[in-house]
């Protein structure tokens, strides 16, 4: 009888957990399911940041401001929930300077923080234990008819459901960051060594299953 | 008797409100006291974003990456709680690329979003009604013995209490962004016209009282 009660309580607990996770997904488009990785694992931490965040700042070389850097708050997705591939995709309109800049000069930088994830509430956002990731590379427009565009659109629209209703006449198009350099801080002692290959390879066995 | 009860209930409510605000300040260093301004008031919205946010992404021209933009998550403060002046101050170490970059090329961009403030939870971070601000200008090291450094340090240490205990041998110094251009999105229809003078002038009467 005691065992049955425990089972019932566990089921009830599981039900409520599922309910709250579902509710979170409904509002935010993605559940925060994985926990923060061990900071010693640079690839895991960087990929966790890319997978769990929904927005960041994308910096380009400004055409309007004589070559100065220009940061812009943008939404992004690196894949379907739980199956991110680490490459950030963006849904940008040329009405906004960032897309226009990238079409003239692809050099870009994309920065995200652990702070919005709520796992470093007790430390300052600049404290090195509150991890932060900057991906540098080339911001490229994706051929709208390619398989990659199909994948990226699904990734973006799943994480950001309202994107599919954004005005058609704004000519939103999908861009991706081709990563060339990674800057990760997730502990004391300066930037963690992490190559692009190590970053992209992380969890690749899981990706093949999609 | 009914009036007395109402008075008591109100006092109780006020007590709990104060308690929670105090608790919030203790953890976050600053209370979110002001409400979101009318989006039609560009200066008020921009200054609200600068005053209420605690971190953003500061982009510089990378010396290590051949002049590419380089964004970096940093903490900042624009003044004492409720008395921000709109100029972002930073506490940076030359061990980090951002400070080194700025000492070679001052051109910088600082981006913040409304999203961390919790006032646009129902919209996507890239939705134009979830406001975002990018300040472009020159990132300058402040003379450590100046009155401005004293003010900026008080502003930074009040908003980010742990900064005062950061390692002395890391040579943290105060930088400020001298704003030259403002990019604000807070509604549909593209960037809001807002001059630097309008931005800095906003609420100036209050500032004189400090």
TrEMBL record, chains A, B:
Question: Where is coiled-coil annotated?
Answer: none
Question: Could you tell me the superkingdom of the organism this chain comes from?
Answer: Eukaryota
Record InterPro entries: CREG, CREG_beta-barrel, Split_barrel_FMN-bd
- SUPFAM superfamilies attached to this UniProt entry: FMN-binding split barrel
Subcellular localization, per the record? Answer: Secreted
Q: Which residues form the CREG-like beta-barrel domain?
A: 37-200
Query: Looking at the keywords, is Transmembrane present?
Result: no
Arranged from A to Z, the UniProt key words for this protein are:
Glycoprotein, Secreted, Signal
Record's keyword annotation contains Signal = yes
Q: Note one Pfam family from the annotation.
A: CREG_beta-barrel
Q: Where is the signal peptide?
A: 1-23
Gene Ontology, cellular component aspect: cytoplasm; extracellular region
Q: Which family does it belong to?
A: Belongs to the CREG family.
Please report the name of this protein according to its UniProt entry. Protein CREG1 isoform X2
Q: Which organism is it from?
A: Cinnamomum micranthum f. kanehirae
